[in-house]
Amino acid sequence: MIVEVKNLVKKFHIGNGFFTALKGVNLEFTEGEFVGLVGPSGSGKTTLLNIIGTLDMPSDGEVVVLGKSVGKLQPKEAAQLRKEQLGFIFQNYNLLPVYTVFENVEFPLLLLNMTGSERKQRVMETLEWVGLTEKVNSRPSQLSGGECQRVAIARAMVKRPQLVLADEPTANLDAANSHNILQMMEKLNKELNTTFIFATHDEKVIGYLHRIIRLADGKVSSDEIVKKQEALKV
Fold this sequence. Notes:
Layout: E1 3-14, E2 17-29, E3 34-38, H1 45-52, E4 60-65, E5 68-69, H2 75-85, E6 86-90, H3 101-110, H4 116-129, H5 145-157, E7 163-167, H6 175-192, E8 195-200, H7 203-206, E9 211-216, E10 219-225
Parallel strand pairs: 3-8, 3-9, 6-7, 7-8
Antiparallel strand pairs: 1-2, 1-4, 4-5, 9-10
Helix pairs in contact: 3-4, 3-5, 4-5, 5-6
């Protein structure tokens, strides 16, 4: 099991009271899934994704990620888990503007015990996957939105994580680029057996998911497996 969510509750302080964003959520995610947390703004999907990614902590219940209980991790332990085994893709790319494409993708590897030649080989191989080898020396300001998101995917995948978390990864892209990005992630999911968990309300993303978990008002309202022949590319 890649992720186990057990009776998860998340509360946020609001003035003198609390807002409960997640209300007793129970879920399991297995290796190689291509799954989405789907729901409108305020449904709890991004909060759940952030807790799975150890960027936030449960108020109650338990989330176990790759065998480690998130709520029991010290900050350094959570950072170690993110550094070694998790990849993140955000809607705003979060690229470092003064770095080249190569340097942006290489950055996560600088935190690992790899030689310069090993890093170069890994970066170039990953950029080849996403079709950006000719942009290796470009900076983000010289790239299109679709190219920036491909760099972000390469950065997430370069360390070969077991789990990739993607928060509205197509929100800033047009339809053609969205489909290209989603096809690329689906291909990486198949070839590397990497688990992808999305937080989204984008119908284009939903059309590619193999499992759809719908959230409403902090609870799971439905959880269904989508047979591939039924998955529609909206």
